[in-house]
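FORM 7B - TANDEM STRUCTURE REPORT

SECTION 1: FIRST PROTEIN
SEQUENCE AND TOKENS:
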Amino acid sequence: MEGVIYKTLSSAEAKELNIQTQGPKESEAFVSAFLKRCLPGLREEVIQERLNRKAVILEHSVKQKKKQKRKRRKGLSAKEKRQLRLFEIKAEQQRYNLFLPLHNLWKQYIRDLCNGLRADTQPQMIQTKLLKADLHGSLVTVKKSKCPSYVGLSGIIVQETKHIFKIITKDDKLKAVPKCNTVFSVEVDDFISYIYGSRFQLRSSERSAKKFKMKGSIDL
């Protein structure tokens, strides 16, 4: 039986298998249709050629699914954040006492950053640490400004952007003070440092990686 693809069953075999016998034409048509379904990529002439020469290996055709690139979910843009008012401090939250715990945490943060503030601690070292420190919660005072109305303003920094400090004052008012042309003082445990806003126009996240150069003189 080697090399036989299909043949007519005898009446005894058909009776044993409980099937209805078919003639050679029906059997050939069935086999041809079956091979076309199993080998969709081959033409009929090629299938017939292979039947005449050798056995046919049936393969299951699987369509390769294209890998879809996973889209990285982008965060909100600055415009969308402004529209949603994510960083807006509501009027009922603009109270100095609410931010005193933040100020106390900031003072402890600076003490740890400077390995303790002792009497023999070098002021230059504190100044260097403050340049790269997060100032949210610090108590600052405007010492000099080209806008006289800002001079003497004091409060806790509750928000910082590239160009402004938002300060909550002791009389529960939220003030936006521009960094440009303004000198701020920061006091921690009797150590006073000065921040020249014109040289400080960076976001806090960018400031931590910036290398500051010593300047001989700084003008407002």
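SECTION 2: SECOND PROTEIN
SEQUENCE AND TOKENS:
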Amino acid sequence: MANSLASTFIAPPSLRHHPIFRLNHRQNVRDFRFCAKKSSEAEPENALLKIAWYGSEFLGIAASFLRSPSKTADSGADVELSVDGFGKIDRATVVDSIKEDFHRSYFVTGNLTLDAYEDNCEFADPAGSFRGLSRFKRNCTNFGYLLERSNMKLMKWEDFEDKGIGHWRFSCVMSFPWRPILSATGYTEYFFDEKSGKVCRHVEHWNVPKMTLLKQILRPSNKKSSSKT
């Protein structure tokens, strides 16, 4: 707060040539140039990441037509969660369903408890965001078609007033000719709607730089090490 106020302070004419003011002015200019440079460098990365994100979505759709459907039962689709007298689902019930979805590796199977989410739930990750539970389920299912094998585990769960946070670890071998290995840790924020108790925002955070994930996808794996994954 103090730094924000200092940056908007306009010195009176009598102090504008004071050494301290000149120093702060030069520092502010350097800080502004640094932020501008950092922002301009990040723009190409963000654009490239978005291209890769949308490309993977369309590639997953294409793969869904070429590969046979998974034999894993979609056990979460038809589950109806109980509500109270006000039509609200208990928080603990929703959280338990999310933890069960992790056991079903819902990130790559699309097998999640649909009744735990709002139909227009917002889904966001480092590349972008969209609304729609059906689209999220479709994307997760199709992404699974691009994997040779995967491993996903919920490491820790935290409860807060308006949300829960699930910390996870994920690794997979993608079924591209060069068989890249994708490995990362991260966490997902699950925001709960006050009226329904369902998840209304699902926000993913990866504990690795965005470009590192893209480089992992582009890097050929070592056949010997990948066979042991």
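SECTION 3: OBSERVATIONS ON SECOND PROTEIN
The first strand starts at residue 117 and ends at 125.
The two ends are 49 Å apart (CA to CA).

SECTION 4: SIGNATURE
Preparer initials: ____
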